[in-house]
Amino acid sequence: MQGRVPQPESRPGTRRPPATTVLSPRIGGPRAAREIAKAVQNDIAQGRLPLGSRLPNERELARHYQVSQPTIREAVRALDIMGLVDVRHGSGVYVTGDIGTYLAGSFQALLQIERVGILDVLDLRTLLGGFSARRAAEKASGAEVDAMRRFLDAIDRPAPNSDVRELVRPPVSFQLTVSAAGHNPLLFAIESFLIRLLVQMQLTAMEHHGVEFWRRRVSSFGSDRRRLLRSIADRDQAGAVEAMETYLGDQHALFASDGELAEVSVSDPALLAGLLDLPDLRRDR
Q1: What are the backbone angles phi and psi of residue 92, rounded to the nearest 5°?
Q2: Nearest Cα to Cα of residue 5 among 73, 54, 71, 74
Q3: Are 92 and 216 in the same domain?
Q4: What's the rounded Cα separation, in Å, for the pair 75 and 96?
Q5: CB atoms within 10 A of CB 159
Q6: CA separation for the pair 65, 36 (Å, rounded)
Q7: For the residues 44-59, what does the mean pLDDT come to?
Q8: pTM of this prediction?
């Protein structure tokens, strides 16, 4: 039987969590802290503890799991190390990770071992992109199509004083919105990581070129993006697949001809850390 623990009120300026937090059944025995961390991780993965929600306080968790408060502190510390929660002193413990966090961590560990180049990443992105575009043409809501259109308008009309990072946000957000419109959480989590990784690899290699270079680069593929948007808005699944394949194929041709990109090491920890500065619809919604 699952326990429902009253959820504390949010402080002003924070996202208001649900009125109650549903946790996994009580557990006990040795290695309780590890088991509690696994239980909370499962609740996050299953959506019972949504992104941005606040966990019950230490005393309530100890009572719920029938363990000591130091055991709860140890479990929370493990969740913090995994990047699943954020401990805010004086405020509480907030859920900051979801399925995308798990996948990103796994991908990062793999990329640090294997020699993976930008074309390898783009090949996988292309393999998934066609399926994602087909689903978006089938399932995208009117609000999602409107959001795609706003991001394309932002690409065409950037703010006068935009820096490089601000310039790349709209094209990243456009691609993320297309993926999210397919309403497949696992596909979105994988694509989200790949999309942001591809942009971060370009920034690592060429951010030093400055704003004007990036204005031109960001505006590239504008016709490809508009064609993709039209196909999704028209519910043209075959057209959306073809438009996505053309869009990513044109990127492949550009990347393959660029010597600077070939020198980027995906295993560079600084590159992976830079992903946190790029849009993430799980955080930004």
Answers
A1: 140, -170
A2: 54
A3: no
A4: 16
A5: 9
A6: 8
A7: 84
A8: 0.67
